[in-house]
Amino acid sequence: MWIATLALCLDEDYELIDLMEQMKREAGVRENCFASLGWLLHAKGEYEKARSYVQQLLNEHSLLDEPAIRLCYSILGGVATAFKEYDESLIYCQHVLKLCQKCGEDAPLPVAYQDIGEAYYWKKDYDLALEYEQKALDLLPEEHLQRSYIYRVIARVYRATYHYDLSLSYHQKVLDIQKKHLHENHLDFAAAYNSIAAVYHNMRLYEKALGYLNKALSICKKSLP
Question: Which sections of the protein are TPR repeats (predicted)?
């Protein structure tokens, strides 16, 4: 029971980490752009404030450039997901995709496809989730770091559908790519170890689950303030 409780607490922490990393990956968004405050509010879990602020920004459309507009809709999608408004989240993700498709080669299409796939994952429409994650993969080089985030969504789909061996294989793909791009105490490794622990917990392999949880905790102790 205490292993399950620990895993649940870590899951909640890593949702915040995932959000922060997702927003940082929005191509072309400057740290000082108007939408950054909305991202910060979202990251702090102040979802209503984030939603209100971003909607006000969108009403003042002239203040925003194209990447900032995309970020605003991504934030609204994230807020909707936090409130379990998955249909609404999907609508925002699809809107981001449409904006990306108008912007040419510089638009973050892989991220847009990934986010739609993740929205379908939350809706438990797993076939469509996998379809959109594959669309994202098709646009990326073989060892691109972005693939690790896509593989993580795919691994979650397979965990949700009880294909635990497949889930573990995709989590291993996540680790393989991370090792080529990130330092060993990067929080993405902690997130990956935590996810692997969750799969082993589902498989009732509790010693393995505990081992990976300890790996995750070790990184968090070194990397978090």
Answer: 110-143, 190-223
